[in-house]
């Protein structure tokens, strides 16, 4: 059992990688995550690939985990999304360590606030049998630069 799991997979650009984003994988993750543990999952840009981002959230929830999505501006990527997955609710911290340069108690809530253009949309569960995330991801990222 693990108290912390960090998932940073390559982008789901093909069906081999897409398997890593399925409910099968997240079911295995849920089995290994302690009752009080948290996993953080790098997803994609909720701004550029909104449907893909929320597909990952729906897939995590489909295995009984709570999904707490958040986003941050990453200089080399732009607006990027992540999900905290857990067996129990995640709570906003009331204090942060001293010396942080980019986070404050006032800015943390903004990470969890999704404006209209990134707000949740209905999404299918990504399964081994459908791999909807791969085609959705290709379609959304294919629009970039057009």
Order of helices and strands: EHHEHEEHH
Strand order of the largest sheet: 1-2-4-3
Supply the CATH superfamily name. Answer: Vaccinia Virus protein VP39
| Named CATH architecture | 3-Layer(aba) Sandwich
The helix-and-strand class reads alpha+beta
Number of DSSP helices? 5
Polypeptide structure, described:
The protein has 146 residues and is of the alpha+beta class. The chain has one domain: Rossmann fold. It is built from five helices and four strands; from the N terminus they run E-H-H-E-H-E-E-H-H. It has a four-stranded mixed sheet. A hairpin with a 3-residue loop joins strand 3 and strand 4. The longest helix is centred in the middle third of the chain and has 12 residues. The model has no long low-confidence stretch (mean pLDDT 94).
Topology at a glance:
Elements: E1 2-7, H1 15-18, H2 23-32, E2 33-42, H3 50-61, E3 66-74, E4 78-86, H4 108-111, H5 132-142
Parallel strand pairs: 1-2
Antiparallel strand pairs: 2-4, 3-4
